[in-house]
Amino acid sequence: MSMNEKFLYHIWDAQHLQTDLHTESGEQVKVIYPGRWNTDAGPDFKEAIIKIGDQVRRGDVEIHLCSYDWTAHKHHENKDFNQVILHLVYEHNAQYTHSISENNKLIEILVVKDKLNDDINKLLEAYRERQFLPSDQFCGLFAGLDLETTSLMLQNFGNIRLRKKIDRFAAELFFSDFNQLLYQGVMEALGYSKNKFQMLQLALILNYALLKKFYYQGMTLDQLISILLTSSGLLERMPVTFPRELISKWIELYAQQDFFIETLEIEWHLFRIRPQNHPAIRLIQIADFLHRSLDHTFFYSILELFSCRQDEFRTIEFTRKLYQLFADSSGIIPDSYRLGHERIDIILVNIILPLSILFAEKMNYPDFQKVAWELYADFKALPENYLIENMKKFMDSSQRKLISRKAIYQQGLIQIYYSFCQHQYCQSCEKIGKESFLK
Fold first, then answer.
1. Which of 4, 130, 139, 296 is most buried, judged by most C-beta within 10 A?
2. At what angle do helices 147-172 and 366-378 cross, to 10 degrees?
3. What is the pLDDT of residue 203?
4. pLDDT of residue 402
5. Which residues of the chain are under the pLDDT cut of 50?
6. Whole-angstrom distance between the N-terminal and C-terminal Cα of the chain?
């Protein structure tokens, strides 16, 4: 089987690499966190944490078959790739030992052709003669599998997926704290598919510690909103249906305040976006929750939701309080624009639960850990995305109904996809998944 970029993505994501790694310039490489797979435009992996030489860096990773592809794909002219800290390639065929970004920074090149570990080399050999055809639609993993076994298998992979999220946040604690991680995680989720990175950029620049400093200097909620919207360039690009008098008020407030007066270069993607999903609307709503938390801490607001005896914890009561926490109590947001419960559920599963479990592990609170894991195990299903819908095509009707019951089943299905289906590792999938459970 010839090497392809998607297979390289898996190699990097699963770290099927030898430990003795050096860049083309001779710098030693140690991967602390490989980053998260980016399914949108831009670098292939976002927010990686890598020690290169004697310096720990945080940024993006771009992956190509050949190092010259960096230039061939015009990444050296694209600002979206200015945060790349490592250019991973299968073969080196460029003239220089570094790739060069649009802002003229040198990017280390890591060649992995002779640095794959034994496991991945065996897999390459096993699949060398395999041809993957569009008609190869049968899935041996779910075929004939009873519901009890399907449930157990999906729970297992669902737990693996949550653990991966916990590990990601644990790696990010190297650079941050729980308040900032919760803040940027929520901001990223409120960017939806088109503006996730842009919202994250804003959270990193106007970070939680900075906002807390402004709060103790007297920053009001309206001033916070004016800073978020005006500095980001969103105030002049509000939905046409948004009240003009509020926009005028925030323009005036921004001109009068002296907390933060920078103009940020953030490239928002607003074409054909629904008004409810407009990043400006989401910033206004999160600003209320954010401002309320600045008197103590953002993360403490979440911890309070878990503050009851283990035998008294009730999911219904927990979610009711969670929805209230995110509700706009300022009265600024029209009812038709308010954040829906489904989006808050997504934030709970992807951000709040992994961060809470990580906190409980760090502080050695076993009861807290148990409650959070049990909440995850029993939590209702989230809105289905295209990936889940496509994966359900390989299941029978009873298995599809099972997926629609709980978030952990959906997360397990997503984990199976990223571990096996995306790379068409069908034989490995059946052996690791189905055969292990049948035994």
1. 139
2. 130
3. 94
4. 96
5. 1, 129-136
6. 31
Provide the b/e sequence for 79-118 (b: ≥16 CB within 10 Å): eebbbbbbbbbbebebeeebbebeeeeebbbbbbeebbee
DSSP structural state of residue 307: -
DSSP symbol at 272: T
Residue 275 corresponds to which tokens in the numbers above? 């008004």
Using alpha carbons only, what angle is made at residue 285 by residues 176 and 303, rounded to the nearest 5 degrees? Answer: 45
Q: Is 399 helix (H, G, I), strand (E, B) or coil?
A: helix
CB 319 within 8 A of CB 376: no
Residue 368 sits at the vertex; the CA angle it makes with 153 and 356, to the nearest 5 degrees, is: 75
Closest CA to 251 of 241, 264, 236: 236
- Give CA–CA dist 382/84, Å, rounded: 32
Note the pLDDT of residue 268.
95
pLDDT of residue 258: 95
User: Smallest Cα–Cα separation from 179: which of 266, 32, 289, 255?
Assistant: 289
Distances (CA, A) of 284 to 10, 160, 240, 242, 255: 38, 35, 16, 12, 18
